[in-house]
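Example record

The entry below shows one chain as it appears in the dataset: sequence first, then structure tokens.
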Amino acid sequence: MLDFNDLEHLTLQVLTVEEEDGTRVPSQAAGELSGQYEEILVDEYQDSNLVQETLIQSISRERLGQPNVFMVGDVKQSIYRFRLARPELFMEKYDTYSREESSHQMIELQQNFRSRASVLTCINDIFYQIMTKIWEASVIQKKRPFIRELRLKRQRKSGDPGPVSCGRYGNRSF
């Protein structure tokens, strides 16, 4: 019996070969597949892990100078850390892809048809506070652990807004 993780790793063995230095490169099978697909569409990219990223890269035409991967995601919705999801893969592309038309273009979808503006504003305010602190702490901690403490103290001193009130029900804020 195989689970999803097993299938990912078996696919990795088919689509990549290990070089002498331990790096994995696309196999002949991956090369053949990359010629068959005009585009590779990836939904919920924020929940991709390193194995999935390697699989995507192995069959994409990126290495041929013809990027053909279209990714959709929202880092605020990343829920699969227990499956080794790496939302920083999403954030790295979010931070480096151009907003101008190019082969590596990031297009922000600002229109939301499922929620009212007041709900979106509230949720975005909450997540801005949470995600900014988490992202900064994660990046800073990897580079220089002692700066994390300084940055968080500086935020508190400069008037960190704290909890956000999103609505009222009687005398209670929520």
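Notes for this example: The radius of gyration is 20 Å. Strands lie at 16-18, 24-26, 40-42, 69-71, 168-169, 172-173.
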